[in-house]
Here is the input.
Amino acid sequence: MLSVIIPTMWKYAPFLDYLEGVLEQNSVGEVIIINNNVYATPDSEVLAHEKIRMHNCKKIFLLHQHGILEPKWLVMINFVFCQMILMLI
Here is the structure.
């Protein structure tokens, strides 16, 4: 099983359709959404899916700086349930 980590600011219009496709995959055990824009979070049933874990950020949760993984991402990785991690950026 895969834990999929996806940061978003909700600017990609077809994101929810994309997310539905990810959730349909049998190999995906959970999807952790790093919500970098809480006020723009869409009202959608797909976000209530049992595989979704939403992490709402008070400020932007950067993935890396100068190619180096930020320590806060390493902390997020400790919260995954599955043995394999896929980070979609």
Notes: The first strand starts at residue 2 and ends at 8.
